[in-house]
Design brief:
By secondary structure, the chain is an alpha/beta fold. The protein is built from 13 helices and 17 strands. 45% of the residues are buried.
Length: 383
């Protein structure tokens, strides 16, 4: 088949690589003038690692990343809030990966499999015909016709807004400032420091003595923060987390930090007659469970498998939704529930979190569910 994909991110490149390997002609549309390896760190869960195995990329990615045994979150007092480890029975672990590394390897795989990549072309809408579908571009030009289209254009998807499919999009009040730099202290886990539900920072090791640093911030206070003293802010961060000193030393101004917002997207249906949504375009969440890139990789693999087994677009869409709906609903619900307990400004939620989280992993059934959730293994309430 001849397939058009909007969005040259993790979901789009992974889908293109799988579909091209199956013998389809794939064209990727990207609004940026060039495809560049940008971004901070991501937590690659065991579920996402399995997809990279199938793409033949796992060994390459793992060799340049940090091997992590789980999550360690602490209160500003130093008391441990939660220490959650991956399943020891399955010998599982997480990988702290620079997003640019993952993207670069996926892009190289697409190029090796003869995926056509068209940069500088912003997709704003689509038009469906009896034979297929066409992307409508921002310069009022239509793309050539494809048998079907894939929307992998992220949480701010323009195609979602113009598709006619019902959806809800919640813009979170809290966001984050990110930076990547040298770090030699924490090497084996995702580390977080928590102060109420207003101050949150984290260090995600990326291997090769590097880490990704994030600082939670209200979206409406970013401008005021940028106008304040950078050195005062660094002192505030170091008082909260002295282990971040080596990374912060390399930062000279707020311009060295990337500002990223969060949103929560829900769609009742992920496809029209010629267009399907995958990744953040279909089901964006906040990053608090570290699942976004992993769910996108799984989407790409699952849809490619569905198309291979049905050889029909609509049948593949139905199979994809049947296989993915329970898991995605579960992770969206848990993430939406969890986020306000870490970023909301609510002191009552902070008290409830501080009382419950240290205890929950010690409960046999709950602890096992939390471990499988962290690893991306939950398929729903009972899976």
């Amino acid at each position: 088949m001849n397939i058009g994909i909007s969005g040259c991110g993790i979901a789009g490149t992974a889908a293109a690589a799988f579909l091209a390997e199956a013998g389809h002609d794939v064209t990727l549309f990207e609004q940026a003038p060039e495809c560049r390896a940008i971004g901070a760190g991501i937590l690659l869960q065991p579920s996402g690692q399995e997809v990279l195995d199938r793409l033949g990329l796992r060994e390459t990615i793992e060799a340049q990343s940090a091997k992590l045994d789980g999550l360690d979150a602490r209160l500003i007092s130093g008391r441990q809030l939660v220490r959650l480890r991956y399943s020891q029975k399955k010998d599982e672990y997480g990988l702290g990966v620079h997003r640019g590394l993952l993207f670069s390897e996926l892009l190289k795989l697409c190029q090796a499999r003869n995926v056509e990549i068209r940069t500088g072309q912003t997709v704003v809408d689509h038009r469906e015909t009896d034979q297929g579908g066409r992307f409508q571009l921002s310069n009022e030009i239509e793309s050539d016709e494809f048998d079907f289209l894939i929307a992998a254009d992220g949480s701010r998807s323009q195609l979602r807004a113009s598709s006619g499919l019902p959806f809800t999009c919640l813009e979170y009040n809290y966001a984050a400032l990110w930076a990547t730099g040298p770090h030699h202290v924490i090497q084996d886990r995702l580390f977080q420091m928590v102060d109420g539900t207003e101050r949150l920072l984290g260090l995600l090791p990326l291997g090769q003595n590097r880490a990704s640093f994030f600082w939670g911030v209200r979206s409406d206070s970013v401008d005021a923060l940028r106008a304040s003293s950078f050195e005062d802010w660094k002192r505030e961060v170091l008082a909260m987390c002295p282990d971040a000193a080596d990374l912060l030393q390399k930062l000279t101004s707020f311009d060295d930090l990337i500002f990223a917002t969060y949103r929560h997207v829900e769609m009742k249906r992920w496809h029209t007659g010629r267009l399907i949504f995958i990744g953040d375009a279909a089901h964006a969440t906040s990053p608090h469970l570290g699942q976004g890139a992993n769910l996108a990789l799984e989407d790409a693999a699952c849809f490619a498998e569905a198309l291979q087994s049905t050889n029909d677009f609509l049948a593949a869409c139905r199979q994809f939704e049947q296989q993915r709906r329970a898991k995605l609903n579960y992770y969206q619900w848990v993430t939406k529930l969890l986020t306000p307990y870490f970023q909301s400004g609510s002191s009552l939620r902070a008290l409830a979190r501080n009382a419950a989280l240290p205890v929950l992993p010690k409960l046999p059934l709950v602890g096992a569910m939390m471990t499988s959730t962290l690893g991306g293994r939950r398929n729903g309430w009972f899976g």
